[in-house]
Amino acid sequence: MERTFHSKAKSDRIIEVFVSKEFCFDTLKSFDLYIDGKRKQTLTPISISESHSSRIYTLTTKEGKFIPGKRYELRTMHNYFIPIDISYLASTPEFEAQYRYDGQLGAIYTPKKTTFRVFSPFATRIILVLKRKGARQEECHLMKRDPEKGIFSVTIEGDLDESMYVYEAEIFSTIYKVVDPYAFSVDSNTRNGFVINPQRVKAIDTNNRLLPKINDITESIIYECSIRDMTSLTKEEGRGTYDLFYKEGLTSSNGEPIGIDYIQSLGVNYIQLMPVLDFQTVDDDNPKAGYNWGYDPMSYFALEGSYAKNPNDPYDRVLSFRKLVSKYHQRGIRITLDVVYNHLYSTKFNSLSILVPQYYFRHNPDGTLSNGSGCGNDIESRNFMARKLIIDSMVHLVDFYDIDGFRFDLMGILDVETINLAKEKTLRKKKDLIFYGEGWDLWTNLPFDQKASLYNSGKLEGVGFFNDRYRDVAKGKSSESEIYVRGYLLGDTNYIDGFKHVMLGSATTLAFAPMLSSYKQSVNYVECHDNFTLFDKLSLACSDETEIERLKRIKLLHIATLFACGIPFFYEGQEIGHSKKLCPNSYNAGDDINGFDYKLLSERKDLLRFFTDAVMLKKQFIALAKDYYSNLPSHITFENLPQGALKINYDLPEHKLYVIFNPTKSSVLYDFNDYTTLVFNDTGLIQDSNFYIRLGIINALSVNVFLQKKNTGRVLKEENA
Question: Of 221, 244, 389, 462, which is the most buried if we count CB atoms within 10 A?
């Protein structure tokens, strides 16, 4: 019908009508305006434009402002009724100021009754279509409209746990089947929502009390991974699911630990899960037929079904994920979630767009969608109900699953106030949450001073930012066009002063102006899911070197990331130099490219041991630093060594720690003028703590760590145990 004719209000007075010549070849002289089924006036076109296939009529009306929730139609001379789309109102300040609701939305369950509540100011009516558990027939319940707030609600008696439901909404005279955007669980491929009893979920102990205390955010060591990737290349039944991700006692064909056992062996204390909220483009019923990282969001409350054993069971994914969190907490590992609140996969077919067209998305002055995300749309986080959606989602994830933090995808699309309010409200639920995200200044239609970007880090206290400057200085650029550029640890020693700057957390004037207001906001990384892997970058940028030499550079980068001021961050497989076969953007490249390679793990056990020893060394360093650790940059000095090598001195309460980086092809000698102990070298931790030296030899492409007790120059064995 839309191809035949449709009509859209452009303002309070202007209406445009599209009529196909195939439907009506003659020019229409007038239209009758109907409001809620009653004729109001006859409208004569003030202009007519046409193409080969259609005519567009411009009409004016004097009926006053359009009112959301009323049914507006135009009757033609043939007695056809054309609905008028008045969604332009959603972009007006008056709409935003009036239509808002600060109460609970979704299916609000109790054992005796459930209240369903949905926000849809433009709808003229909404029917709840409900199918109780075990019932053969559906029930239809007309929902009551609140014209002041744009809310529809209905309360149904009885225990509706596991009941399936969907909304049938009439909007601009068209009936839509809409899944509740606040549904806590959905069926396969998100066709219906389920009523969930929160107490059944919360009955699973999340073992939060077993988590070791973290005194400072920079004690975090974050490991990014995907639910699917960590088991997708194994032969285990149920690979790629929530359940297998936390199943204990699994080993690869080479006897290597898999999943939770492997991740715990790394010594990290946080894992950042790539998106687990419901996303669009993987078939839940046949996940092996497709692959996607999950940055194509569909729902902000329901979990992804392709990771579930049974995506049609209302509790399968919900309980599995709660158990997952519980198991990792039991192992002393916290969970942060990668959340994609900056855009939706589809603006046309998503429930939010159907229920409140044009409201949830940011627009440019010309009315087009703002596209700073590069995905076709940006969420308008400043609108009250859009901001509420984001904050409600975050509160739900903490409340339902007891997660430990949030990583915001493309955080610069969102506004400062939303991030700060979300932080404030979720911290009321759990006081030790962490928050960090991608702080790029993106071309979204949002004033610069409102963007939650790193340039506004001073307005976002306690929020971390991915430090691209650290990545680019330590490793080199990551984009395809600059992949051959080398950073300091890849051999370009001209970056030595820049390397000092990023090792101080990019919050100090040294080589560069400060990028962040505090070093504690710096998330230091050289590899994440985006762009080439570190190994593939080295393969291209250091193609003149042997693989052994390139793996040595990976070791340098591991130590640098751990000992830089800020929060160290690693990506799955980085610890063993995994490759994605030179794929620069593997978001849909499949399991063969993205899956964790346990065979490679068997081949590079020395690299794995180096990484785990480096993590252990970092933890020992934190213990030695004591109170100094909370203000680490003030206890660091640098010393340039011959050929571009660098000595970093950490002045600790009772010790001095020296980290010497040599990214060159020649050995470097250093005379300490007193006895010191070599505690870490190319092989990892040195077990013999009585290895005293005065002259240190730092081999080519290596990093050595020395510890010296103040005053005596001696280090007791038990202090390094």
Answer: 244
Q: H-helix or E-strand containing 33?
A: strand 31-35
- For 161, how many CA atoms within 13 A lie in the half-sphere containing its CB? 10
Residues taking part in catalysis: 409, 438
Angle at 709 between CA 708 and CA 712, to 5 degrees: 115
* Three-class secondary structure of residue 707 per DSSP: strand
Q: Which residues contact 26 (CB under 8 A, 6 or more apart)?
A: none
Name the pairing type of β-strands 72-75 and 692-698. Answer: unpaired
Beta bridge partners of 657: 650, 707
What is the amino acid identity at position 32?
Answer: D
Helix (H, G, I), strand (E, B) or coil at 387: helix
Query: What 3-state class would DSSP assign to 428?
Result: helix
- Answer yes or no: are the C-beta atoms of 157 and 192 closer than 8 Å: no
Cα–Cα distance between 418 and 552 in angstroms, integer?
43
pLDDT digits 0-9 by tens, 531-573: 999 999 999 999 999 999 999 999 999 999 999 999 999 999 9
Q: How far is CA 139 from CA 127, 187, 349, 556, 609, in A?
A: 10, 18, 25, 64, 60
> What's the pTM?
0.95
Neighbours of 313 (CB within 10 A): 18
Q: Cβ contacts of residue 276 below 8 Å, gap of 6+?
A: 227, 294, 303, 304, 307, 321, 337
Residue 373 corresponds to which tokens in the numbers above?
A: 């995300």
CB-hemisphere CA count at 13 Å for 101? 18
Q: What average pLDDT score do residues 309-321 get?
A: 98
Dihedral angle of Cα 583, 587, 593, 599, to the nearest 10 degrees: 120
- CB of 528 within 8 A of CB of 675? no
- Tell me the per-residue pLDDT of 39-74, one tens digit each, with 9 for 90 and over: 999 999 999 998 888 899 999 998 789 999 999 999
422 in Cβ contact with 398 (< 8 Å): no
For the record, the structure tokens of 130 come out as 């409900």
d(CA 398, CA 62): 50
Provide the percentage of residues in the chain whose pLDDT is more than 90: 92
Burial class (CB in 10 A: 0-12, 13-18, 19+), 226: buried
Amino acid at site 602: S
DSSP designation for 379? B
The residues, any chain, with a CB within 8 Å of residue 290's CB and separated by 6 or more, are 281, 282, 283, 588
Assign 474 to helix, strand or coil: helix
Burial 8-38 (b: 16+ CB within 10 A, else e): bbeeeeebbbbbeeeebeeebeebbbbbeee
Task: Kindly give, in sequence order, each residue whose CB lies less than 8 Å from that of residue 636, ignoring residues fewer than 6 positions away.
Answer: 503, 504, 565, 648, 649, 650, 651
Q: 349: closest CA among 195, 189, 165, 119?
A: 189
Q: Which residue has the tokens 């699917």?
A: 228
Q: Where are the alpha helices (DSSP H) in 402-451?
A: 416-429
For 633-649, what is each residue's pLDDT tens digit?
999 999 999 999 999 99
Asked if 216 and 565 count as a contact pair (C-beta separation under 8 A), the reply is: no
> Residue 491: left (phi > 0), alpha (psi -120 to 50), or beta?
left
Q: What are phi and psi of 127, to 5 degrees?
A: -110, 130
Q: Which amino acid makes up residue 265?
A: S
Token pair, residue 305, equals 């079904």
Integer Cα distance of 54 and 3 in angstroms: 10
List helix spans (H) across 439-590: 468-474, 496-503, 534-541, 547-563
